[in-house]
Amino acid sequence: MGIHKLMSLIDEKAPDAVKEITLDTLTGKKVAIDASMCIYQFLISTQTLKQGFGVTELRDKDGNLTGHLVGILNRTLSLLDHGIKPIWVFDGKAPQLKAGELEERKEKKKEAKEKMDQLMEEGKDDEAAKMAQRSIRVTPEMTEDAKKMLRLCNIPMVEAPSEAEAQCAQMVKDELAFATVTEDMDALTFGTTVLLRGFGNRKDPIRQITLSKVLEGFEMSMDEFIDLCILCGCDYTSSISGIGPVKAFKYITQYKTIEEVLEVLEKENTKSKSATKKRYQIPEEFLYKESRAFFNEPDVTKKEDLEEFKWGTPEEEALTKFLTEEKGFSEVTVNNALKKFKKTKGKANQKRLDTFFKMGTKKSTSKVTKTKAAVKSKGKKSFK
DNA sequence: CACGGCCA
DNA sequence: TGGCCGTGG
């Protein structure tokens, strides 16, 4: 999932690219959130282990999972409370390149489910719980419920043509958002200038990773970085056995491209042929060129084809109806959420105004806003 | 995921 | 006061 062990490589080779921050430092900023990733995490974190009864989840009366709705609602409110404007980005059609990876995941989930059932029968509850986490599948219905809730909240939402992380990265490049919020490191490979991770654990600080500083620390160009990521192991092709993040880093540093690295590896293989078996197994279909092309030019919607983002107030009646009547939320919970929405209304703008005055003269700042707004939004103000 | 309750 | 646990949905 994502890029195998890229984070440990960054920690080691480019520690300056990582900054520990709090939510307050993001006040006034917009962030693009990888919704698919969050949904999965929320579903896991709302599972509970009941001794003797196995794993229970949050469900509505029809048995549909609802933990992701709880999570998305709470996270949205927490961000708004800090004056941060969320844009939820959903996966579209999976790219053809990912078919193999998805098939593999499906198989693993099936295995996990079978193991879980077996462990349950044996009464090994906590081991079963681990398997239950692995067997979670996000269905189209769950995604639709999440989208519906966000629409009723009047919180911006983007349906990506393909990969959500790629769409997030594009939005950050287009300056529609400050950063991509995800645990999936390939957002960096797609070129997000800033990645935020660690929103899950309340205890640990959020980590802000800056792409330019990663490249600086790695002493690599973006092209080299993409090749490094593919060698480390990405979702779009199988990788070379015998090559992990450490060797990938060494070889790309030395030889710059996968083509060159492959030549070297083949030489090394023939050298060691007589001694033992082949050291490096290059997959039959090593789709590094296709993967590289996809990282460079994924299917995304660019700024000019996106609707302007607006952070409005919830459709109170319809939202209440949906969450209480269909999704089993208590009225108290929904009312509290609505209250929080009201409390946080205008918070981002208010705090932005504070920094606006702190920053200096009106003249200089309005110049900046003007140039930004003038890019494509025909007279309409992009800020509100 | 957040919240309330319980206990050191 | 702050960490852990059960519940909610």
UniProtKB/TrEMBL annotation:
This is Flap endonuclease 1. Keywords: Coiled coil, DNA damage, DNA repair, DNA replication, Endonuclease, Exonuclease, Hydrolase, Magnesium, Metal-binding, Mitochondrion, Nuclease, Nucleus, Phosphoprotein. CDD domains: H3TH_FEN1-Euk, PIN_FEN1. The keyword Magnesium applies. The keyword Nuclease applies. Structure-specific nuclease with 5'-flap endonuclease and 5'-3' exonuclease activities involved in DNA replication and repair. During DNA replication, cleaves the 5'-overhanging flap structure that is generated by displacement synthesis when DNA polymerase encounters the 5'-end of a downstream Okazaki fragment. It enters the flap from the 5'-end and then tracks to cleave the flap base, leaving a nick for ligation. Also involved in the long patch base excision repair (LP-BER) pathway, by cleaving within the apurinic/apyrimidinic (AP) site-terminated flap. PANTHER family: FLAP ENDONUCLEASE 1, FLAP ENDONUCLEASE FAMILY MEMBER. Its EC number is 3.1.-.-. Binds 2 magnesium ions per subunit. They probably participate in the reaction catalyzed by the enzyme. May bind an additional third magnesium ion after substrate binding. Residues 1-112 form the XPG N-terminal domain. Pfam families: XPG_I (PF00867), XPG_N (PF00752). GO terms for molecular function: 5'-3' exonuclease activity; 5'-flap endonuclease activity; DNA binding; magnesium ion binding. Residues 362-384 are annotated as: Disordered. InterPro entries: 5-3_exonuclease_C_sf, Flap_endonuc, HhH2, PIN-like_dom_sf, XPG-I_dom, XPG/Rad2, XPG_DNA_repair_N. It comes from Euplotes crassus.
